[in-house]
Amino acid sequence: MKVLLKLKVSGQEVSGSSGPTEDQLSTIENGRVEGKKLTFQFTGPGGANFRFELTLDGDSLKGSFVRSMGGNSENGTADLKRTGS
C-alpha cells in the first residue's frame, strides 16, 4: 500500500499529515522524534487509528504500525522512502 507522509520537525515535536493520497490526508497527532526514532499517530479514512514507530535509516523510515478500528487491531511493517524535500 502506498502512503503519503508530510512531516515537519521542530525540536522533538513532529507535525504534518499522512494518508493514501494528497486529497485524503489526516493530521498527525502526538508526533515525537528522539534521535533516529519517530513516533506518531493519526486517524485515517473510515475512522481507523494508526500508530507508527519508525527509525530513520538513510533516506528511509522503517518500522512498525498498528491499525485499530472497531475493536480490532492489525500489526504491520512500514518502509517509507523520501521522494522530495
Task: Please write out the topology.
Blueprint lengths: L3 E7 L2 E7 L6 E2 L1 E6 L2 E7 L5 E9 L2 E10 L2 E10 L4
Offer a concise description of the structure.
This protein is mainly beta. It has no helices and 8 strands.
Outline the structure in words.
The structure is a single chain. The chain is mainly beta. The protein has one domain (4-81). Helices cover 0% and strands 68% of the residues. It has no helices and eight strands. Strands 1, 2, 3, 4, 5, 6, 7 and 8 form an eight-stranded antiparallel sheet that branches. Strand 1 and strand 2 (13-19) form a beta hairpin. It is globular, with a radius of gyration of 12 Å. The two termini are 22 Å apart.
